[in-house]
Amino acid sequence: MRSEAGAPAEVRKTPVTPVQVTGTVLTTRRVDAYHALTVVAPGIAERFRPGHFVGVAVGGTQTSMLTRRAFFVHDVKPDYGGTVEFVFSVSGPGTAWLADRRARDTLDLVGPLGRPFPLPRDPVTCVLVGAEHGSATLFTVADALQRRGCRVDFVLGAASADRVFGALRARRMGETTTLTTEDGSLGMRGRVTDVLPGVIADVRADAVYACGPMPMLHGVTTVAVEFDIPVQVAVEERMACGIGVCMTCVLPVIGDDGVTRMVRSCVEGPVFRGERVRFDDVGTIPFDALGAPGGGTRNAG
Amino acid sequence: MPVDMRTYLGHVELVNPVTTAAGCAASGSELAQFFDLARIGALTTRSITMAPRAGRPTPRMAETPSGMLNAVGLQGPGVDAFLERELPWLAQRGVRTVVSIGGGTVAEYTALARRLTDAPGVTAVEVNLSCPNIEDRGRVFARDGAASAEVIASVRSVMRYDVPVVAKLSPDVMDIVSVARACVDGGADALSMINNPLGMSIDTEAMRPVLAAVTGGLSGPAVRPLAVRCVWQVHAALPSVPIIGMGGVLTGRDAFEFILAGACVVAVGTALFHDPYACLRILRELEEILAARGFHRLADAVGLAHRPPGASTRHRIDLEESSL
């Protein structure tokens, strides 16, 4: 598996060239607590690999909302030259506007963005862990893994039953599927990290893939590290541009050389090796990070 | 007939007036995925500092009505890595590069300028004066004409004679004209305005400031009227000094507004976060607007809004229009 954070200031590119497309909304649907939009975007669909995300402009042409919303791609289909589907929950005026889109409306998309999930060369057993709508990212990964002959097991969880995304599809695709809810309304009561050690032991997992909120990724990484198996996490950081120019989505990640750098989750990520992400220090500049204030460097502003 | 879009920054000719704003194009390679960077007038780098900088903690960004707040804190690789990797990469592709520099002391700016002197591929140097002055209790250089002029004079004295030095001004001052005048007296070949005014946003759910750094720079169309006012005032006071205008340029119309106010170059910043193709789209729209108004040359429109009421837009003699 590849590393994510490399030499300082190395000019890094996403493996595929993103494009900007004005896509037509094909279908909109409600999935429990979430909304899903399918958009005709051939240029993005043909370049897509599991783990990629799209940057969506919200508010129309005269919008006062200038930052793009980043969403992981849930599914791509070859219909109409290529469609992409993404899943989101309404959390502000931008996502509320998106939830009001109807079939035949147009959307401005940039994608595919980010570095996709690395896939194992050999047919191994993988546990895919998703929390909230982060689960949506995992199904294209599962598909790619299964095409390589990998065994796939799911662990999906959320606060309540209506926030567990993709349980049915996971049951269809996965060898086993374990569901958790914090209120006990579906599956086991608790969090995904409570059941994960048992699942890893039972299926003799060789690798873990995870997507969800930062504390959950932290927990999953801790479990995987205990079992000494590789873990790939896809982070959901706040972004403004998604293409690597705004420098707002950074988090501390340890590079191959052992040096911690503030790397952009949109370009160097969103997929990282879990044990390389300094989860405890997310939201801070660790004192030993390259260029940290007081680290022998001049702090100029 | 195509409009002659050439413009001058000092004596340096740019093929067109559209550039990126400092800190909005990262290393350049990110935008190069979308369009050929050599097609825009120039690319302005993020502010290069002596040492690598990790920047500010997250959250660094907050969306606000028609704008955004940012507190990135000049995250960057430091001048060594910049000269080793980023600048040669840009030079190789024929990208005209305005290198923005930031420092905490006059000596640091000077040392940076000295490092850039021998580097091939520097079209101009933009001095980011909105950095805290370590020797003046952390107050930013741009607040004070004398401090700004000291930095500019020092950078000018070590920079190659054929590389223009541009002073980037902040709108958070009592009198931007006096700071602009001080910079020009200090040797600035051109002025660039505006840097982000400081703003703040509070999360009413968490009842805490949204940004980890509490305050941040406000950008986007929300600051455009402020920016146009600054360009207008400075151009009125110093009509012969070339101005790079910026602040919330989203369309060709917005760029034209800055041109009319007196800017001969227009920088695109926050728009790049929304639309990676913004520079080329704005350039095309600006050209269409100029053509529709009957202009043959961009230079004819620079500062045109300053003409007396009732004056014609056409009969300007060549000498008069030189914002060269």
From TrEMBL, chain B:
Pfam families: DHO_dh. The active site is at C131 (nucleophile). One of its GO terms (molecular function) is dihydroorotate dehydrogenase (NAD+) activity. The keyword Ribonucleoprotein does not apply. Binds 1 FMN per subunit. It is an enzyme of class 1 (oxidoreductase). Keywords: Cytoplasm, Flavoprotein, FMN, Oxidoreductase, Pyrimidine biosynthesis. It is found in: Cytoplasm. It catalyses: (S)-dihydroorotate + A = orotate + AH2. Its cofactor is FMN. The keyword Iron-sulfur does not apply. Its EC number is 1.3.-.-. Pathway: Pyrimidine metabolism; UMP biosynthesis via de novo pathway. InterPro entries: Aldolase_TIM, DHO_dehydrogenase, DHOD_1B, Dihydroorotate_DH_1, Dihydroorotate_DH_1_2, Dihydroorotate_DH_cat, Dihydroorotate_DH_CS, Dihydroorotate_DH_I. Substrate binds at N70, A71, V72, G73, L74, N128. FMN binds at N128, K168, I194, G220, G247, G248, G269, T270. Residues 9-290 form the Dihydroorotate dehydrogenase catalytic domain. Catalyzes the conversion of dihydroorotate to orotate. Belongs to the dihydroorotate dehydrogenase family. Type 1 subfamily. This is Dihydroorotate dehydrogenase. It comes from Streptosporangium amethystogenes subsp. fukuiense.
